[in-house]
Design a protein that fits this description.
Elements (H helix, E strand, L loop, with lengths): L7 E2 L9 E2 L13 E5 L2 E2 L16 E8 L3 H4 L6 E7 L11 E8 L5 E13 L3 E12 L4 E2 L9 E15 L2 E14 L10 E2 L7 E15 L4 E15 L2 E2 L4 H7 L22 E5 L2 E16 L3 E23 L29 E6 L1
Parallel strand pairs: 3-6, 10-13
Antiparallel strand pairs: 1-2, 3-4, 5-6, 7-8, 8-9, 9-11, 11-12, 12-14, 14-15, 15-18, 16-17, 17-19, 18-19, 19-20
């Protein structure tokens, strides 16, 4: 949907990078140039390509504001801002439920389904509660040498709770909580025969939780106060095949790879390294708060004043994973990782050398 807006491009497919007004992200610092908001919560990452995947479900509307939007929306919005406005619970005493299901199949691939449900489950004249949930299996069609058939099959699920309390006409408080998770074994890139020969020893995954508390007070007919506090926790992994570095491993660890004969070395291990996978499991923790005063003066002068604070941390625990024997070089510096959400065909349980950084 976002890619259909005029003036926008999304060059990285499933990557979250969004470009408006042809203003690309900061390649030096990796900062995005389009602000992204769920209601009042800023969900931008401090690195382009590391923001959340947001399912377009149970929304009231999507606002696309072409930039620059720095005056009203602050950081990382020189190209513009995108706001996903979720549906509020109603306060008229009515409950309702919407359910949608579908099944699908890919010729020569797998089968999938999707179930979505949303509705107002509690409603009075001062308090309302709305829930949304969905679960989906997106069928795969790419056969991978290490993960087996239909390795790009994706499992996704999400649920949202939104509560609204309005004890008087001039004041309201709403609390939003949403969880999202997705995982798949291998990416969807393939040869013309729908096969993929890339080695990724761990699965692709994304998992995030967002909580936001928003308070709104109409102080006078001309002045209103809005306060929004949010917390976003996200984990994601995008493994890739870096087997082109196997000869380099042989230079540092002679005799441990299949390239040993080419370097004049004897193979010294039972299972020499043939392939290398590289994983970057990243963790993003964001806490932000905004207090904003809006007003109108003499019916034609509109003003805004406010305060914004954000504490964001990104960390990555990345490393190389050797196949078929993760211990072939003897360089592993940590204990074996826990079993992944998906396991490669053949029961591979890799270990890895790690490095980490925090920004």
């Amino acid at each position: 949907m976002i890619s259909d807006f005029p003036g926008n491009s999304n060059p990285n497919g499933n990557n979250d990078t969004v470009i408006l007004r042809n203003i690309s992200f900061d390649s030096a610092n990796g900062l995005p140039t389009v602000g992204r908001f769920i209601d009042e919560a800023n969900v931008n990452a401090d690195r382009s390509g590391f923001g959340i995947t947001f399912p377009m479900l149970d929304l009231d509307r999507v606002e696309v504001l072409k930039g620059p939007q720095g005056t009203l929306y602050g950081e990382s919005s020189i190209g513009g801002a995108i706001k996903y406005i979720t549906k509020n619970p109603n306060l008229v005493g009515d409950t309702d439920l919407f359910v949608e299901t579908n099944v699908n199949s890919i010729d020569g691939g797998g089968n999938g389904y999707r179930v979505t449900a949303a509705g107002n489950v509690l409603s009075t004249d001062t308090f309302g509660l709305r829930l949304m949930g969905y679960k989906e299996t997106k069928p795969g069609w790419v056969d991978n040498d290490y993960w087996g058939k239909e390795a790009n099959e994706q499992e996704r699920e999400s649920y949202r709770l939104k509560a609204l309390w309005a004890p008087i006409d001039a004041f309201s408080a709403d609390l939003l909580y949403q969880h999202y998770e997705a995982a798949q074994a291998a990416n969807g890139r393939s040869e013309t025969d729908f096969t993929n020969h890339g080695f990724t020893a761990t699965s692709i995954y994304e998992d995030w939780d967002l909580a936001t508390l928003t308070l709104h007070w109409d102080i006078t007919p001309e002045i209103s106060l809005t306060s929004a506090t949010s917390k976003l926790d996200r984990k994601a992994n995008s493994p890739t095949d870096v087997s082109g570095w196997v000869p380099v491993v042989e230079r540092f660890f002679p005799g441990t790879t299949v390239y040993a004969p080419q370097f004049g070395n004897e193979i010294t291990v039972d299972q020499p390294v043939e392939l290398i996978g590289y994983e970057t499991p990243g963790v993003i923790d964001n806490i932000s708060h905004e207090t904003r005063l809006n007003g109108v003066f003499r019916d034609n002068i509109y003003w805004t004043a406010g305060f914004y604070w954000k504490d964001a941390e990104y960390s990555a625990d990345s490393g190389s994973i050797y196949w078929p024997d993760p211990d072939a070089t003897g360089a592993r510096r940590t204990a074996p990782r826990p079993a992944a959400a998906h396991q490669p065909a053949g029961g591979l349980l890799p270990g890895k050398a790690r490095h980490s950084g925090t920004r």
